[in-house]
Amino acid sequence: MSMSAGSHPFDQATMLVSVAENRYGGRITPAYANMVGPFGGVIAAAMLNGVLSHPARQGDPVAMTVNFAGPLTYEPFELQVRLVRANRSNQHWLLELEQAGLVAASASAILATRQQSWAATELDCPAVAQADELEVWAASAGPAWIKRYQFRFVHGALTLSGQPGPDSESLLWVRDAPERPVDFLSLLALSDVFFPRIFVRQQQMCPAGTVAMTTHFHADAATLAANGSRPLLARARAQCFNRNYFDQRAELWSEGGVLLASSSQMVYFKA
After folding, report:
1. Pseudo-torsion of CA 40, 166, 127, 214, nearest 10°?
2. CA 67 to CA 188: how far, in whole Å?
3. 69 secondary structure, DSSP code
4. Cβ count within 10 A of residue 237
5. Nearest CA-CA partner of 263 in 240, 234, 241
6. Where are the alpha helices (DSSP H) in 53-196?
7. Which of 4, 175, 182, 223 registers the highest number of CB atoms within 10 A of its CB?
8. How many CB atoms lie within 10 A of CB 104?
9. Could you give phi then psi for residue 227, rounded to 5 degrees?
10. d(CA 236, CA 169)
11. Which CATH architecture has domain 9-113+136-269?
12. Distance separating alpha carbons of residues 243 and 248, to the nearest angstrom
């Protein structure tokens, strides 16, 4: 089942209202609750919405980096958005999300007016069964945000068996639940949809949280519109766990094998 724009829980959670020049107000809803505060992907999407809603916005996102400085609650927040520099082809933005007088997250975003050019993708899209050939993953418990997505795992599911696996890679089909056409905001949130790699590697939970994430947008608006609400093929893995931090590299592909976005994270853990 799909929902109209604006009525979807994701649109409600990322909605902003202009409160002053270069300043927006918002509130993340409990529908995207995580273990401590809201799901980071929807926080990032709400911040990007401040740029995409700004009257000076030109072009589409090509990169966004978010640094999570502290936990957010479900109370109102304010987002400061500043255009740092612009030229004919790109814009550089800085953002700060404040709540209760403290900065909870800061970000930088680059928008560009993209032109036709030579193109090549050096990564190979994984060859897997189509989404409708796989069972929907049913979480027996967990934070509310998990219910806002539909997961169909090829491998690397979270079982919480306590039996460590050989690696931390997960490969799965994912989409919003209820269905929602993919756009830049939801694509950014989907780039953070992976469970912490330490959970998958050890198959048990521990304190963990993303401190920094960067998403690169390879798709333009037309490519996303053509995808509609069809599921995306998502792959994530860590490269190194060391001294309370690990990284994560991730990719999001369309059903047709087009690389829509890639991302990297640094995540704190205690285990």
Report:
1. 30
2. 14
3. -
4. 19
5. 234
6. 184-190
7. 182
8. 18
9. -70, -30
10. 6
11. Beta Barrel (2.40)
12. 15
> From residue 266, how far is each of 71, 84, 220, 227, 237 by CA, in Å?
16, 25, 26, 29, 12
Which ranges in the chain belong to alpha helices (H)?
Answer: 9-14, 40-52, 184-190, 197-202, 221-227
String of DSSP letters for 162-208: S---S---EEEEEEESSB----HHHHHHHTT-SPPHHHHHHTS--SE
Classify residue 271 by burial, with Cβ atoms within 10 Å: 0-12, 13-18, 19+.
middle
d(C-alpha 112, C-alpha 63), whole Å: 9
Q: Please give the chain's pLDDT, 271 residues, in tens.
A: 445 456 899 999 999 999 999 999 999 999 999 988 999 999 999 999 999 999 999 999 999 999 999 999 999 999 999 999 999 999 999 999 999 999 999 999 999 999 999 999 999 999 999 999 999 998 777 899 999 999 999 999 999 999 999 999 999 999 999 999 999 999 999 999 999 999 999 999 999 999 999 999 999 999 999 999 999 999 999 999 999 999 999 999 999 999 999 999 999 999 8
Which phi and psi angles does 172 have, rounded to 5°?
A: -160, 160
- Give the residue extent of every domain in the chain: 9-113+136-269
Nearest CA-CA partner of 68 in 101, 88, 92, 95: 95
Closest CA to 81 of 102, 69, 67, 98: 98
What does the buried/exposed string (b/e) look like for 120-135 if buried means 16 or more CB atoms within 10 Å of the residue's CB? eeeeebeebeebeebe
3-class state of residue 230 by DSSP: coil
Range 203-228 burial, b when 16+ CB lie within 10 A, else e: bbeeebbbebbbbbbbbeeeebeebe
Sign of the alpha-carbon dihedral angle for 161, 167, 172, 175: positive
